[in-house]
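Worked Example 4.2. Consider the chain below.
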Amino acid sequence: MIFVNGAKLDFKTYPNGETVIPELRKLLTGKGHDWTFPLVRMNFENDLDLFHLILVSKYLDDLGWGAAKGLTLPYLPYSRMDRTENDSAFTLRHVADIINGLGYREVLIGEPHSDVSPAIIRNSRTVWLTPELVKIAMEQTFFDPLQDHLYFPDAGAEKRYSKMFPGIRYIVGSKKRDFATGKILSIEIGQVQEPSRNVIMIDDLCAYGGTFIGGARALEEAGIDGGCLVVAHCENSIFSGKLLDDPFFSFVFTTDSMVHEKTHEKINAIKARI
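Applying the procedure from the previous section yields the following structure tokens:
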């Protein structure tokens, strides 16, 4: 989905499938508006949104806005493909090349997967979404910072989030993954000296939820019975996975950056404040 100054654009197509770009001049200069520059927002659903972003950006250039325009990306597509391994494509770099070529004066990125994203996208700034989600999760699950634990599924998550919550005990998982298929082969955690009654799992992204289900089983073996999941971005594929049916998880706290399908009683999706 593409928004300009808060208004969702309705793209139509000609019979042969070509895209018709909505008229934007009234939206930018119409009565009741006092926009100094256009703000474009892409809530990514599929690759067609990237194509629409290109067309809208070029159209704004034609209307005279040029490099005055700003871009907001609650979720940066392909942010997981931030390196190459075994001859795999460095897809994020190609997406960054596309965004850089659109000439935005500022690009806001909602909680990217790694430091690579802001490093290769020009004029970008990271907006962290997790702290607010964790605050909500702690309130709703009656999290006790003196007795309970945070859980980070890997060292990358520990590096990103541990300093955000000083003084709270945490557990770190160690997962072995098949890079080619993305399948989790195994998950281990260190010995938990004082098992808590409540755990908040924290990461940036959830697809089917296999990483977190594996972590739940490891935590159960360590004497922890349940908890909740906090992820900045939650794909619609979560509805096809087994996480929502797993009794270990009481809630999933996320933003609306990606979840666009049906709701679920366990999912608490707040508006991404970006």
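The first strand starts at residue 2 and ends at 4. The mean pLDDT is 89. Compare this with Example 4.1 before moving on.
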